[in-house]
Please model this.
Amino acid sequence: MKRIILISFIFVCLTSGVWAGTPEPVDAPVKGMVTMIDLGAKKCIPCKMMAPILEKLKKEYDGRAAIVFLDVWKYPAPAKKFKIRSIPTQIFFDKDGKEVYRHTGFFDEKSIVAMLKKMGVK
Model:
């Protein structure tokens, strides 16, 4: 019985990403807030180019919009959840969690800001 419990625990840890460290957050979109999710990978070239933009926007829009990066090479579950085919993919959700817009490829700061404004984020 102990062996079955141990094997079950190991299986859950391996499949949830816990074994590799902190699991990638998948509580996105953020409830009650306009959310942009960037599904990419830390080793992908266009994703690396977007990283400083996302960090800047995450700080600028703190409390007004959620800017979330999910590394789908390290944690593939969000890729399946959001049905992406290539990275980077950005998905914008309204305050109710409804998908409003999806873009694939590098997305510059000006275009991200314009989309957030279009969605009512000041």
Remarks:
- The CA atoms of residues 39 and 70 lie 5 Å apart.
- Residues 45-60 form the longest helix (16 residues).
- Strands lie at 34-40, 65-71, 89-93, 99-104.
